[in-house]
Amino acid sequence: MRLISYNLRKHRAAGELNALVTTHDPDILCLQECDTTLLPDAIGGLGLVRATTGNRLGLAMYLRSNQYRVERVRTIGLKKSLHDRVLKPANERVLGARLLNIDTGRHVVVASFHAAPLTALNSLRRTQIRAGLNALQELAPGMPVLMVGDYNYPVFKESLGQTVREHGYRLTLSDDRTYTRYRVFRGHYDFATSNGFDISRITTLPQGTSDHRPILITAEAG
């Protein structure tokens, strides 16, 4: 499986998606901060699985329909930060799908995730991550789960890694920083948590018009 995750920075990087898919040939594309009212039905041969509807800026997933069949899709709301309650930027922070690999007959669960912003505490984001992973496991109990996206977690990843390990998951970072706009906030924001996947590498792709760099995950269900 080749999967790209990209935070579009309030949809500003949407014009890059066709070239991104054509160049890197992913099976799945997971988006954050996309204007769901402007999304096309297909991008570079990938078909739209679903986009969230609770807010204009949300999550979306595309996939290669001759490789995977969608069996179930779920959007998940998570515990809200003060920022969420006041400004209401997002009601749904996880978009997950149970997929059947047509060639192998294996089921997997893949999700696009966007954690609460940096104004929230890391403890809240850890709570969101745990809740999101638990909800995704309910889509296909015992099946491999891969949740990718913008975790908004630039520091103290040792604590986050311990949290996800305690729940039977693994945290995997990319080979370079994914957020570079402000020096003080630079770091790995975009990465993956998984269970039942062998992630061979996560490559940070070149900077576009977003303040996040896209990542390319290469993984295989175990």
Q: In short, what is this structure?
A:
The protein is an alpha+beta fold. 18% of the residues lie in helices and 38% in strands.
Topology record:
Blueprint (H helix, E strand, L loop, with lengths): L1 E6 L9 H8 L3 E8 L6 E2 L2 E6 L5 E7 L4 E9 L5 H6 L6 E8 L5 E8 L7 H16 L7 E6 L6 H10 L3 E3 L17 E6 L1 E8 L10 E7 L1
Parallel strand pairs: 1-2, 8-9
Antiparallel strand pairs: 1-13, 2-5, 3-4, 4-5, 6-7, 7-8, 9-11, 10-11, 12-13
Our count of helices gives 4
- Report the count of strand segments: 13
Shape: globular
Major β-sheet, in short? 7 strands, mixed
- Total count of domains: 1
Q: SSE order, as H and E? A: EHEEEEEHEEHEHEEEE
Q: What percentage of the residues does DSSP assign to strands (E)?
A: 35-45%
Q: Look at the structure and name the CATH superfamily.
A: Endonuclease/exonuclease/phosphatase
CATH uppermost class? Alpha Beta
Strand order of the largest sheet: 3-4-5-2-1-13-12
User: Helix/strand-derived class?
Assistant: alpha+beta
* CATH fold call: Deoxyribonuclease I, Chain A
CATH architecture: 4-Layer Sandwich
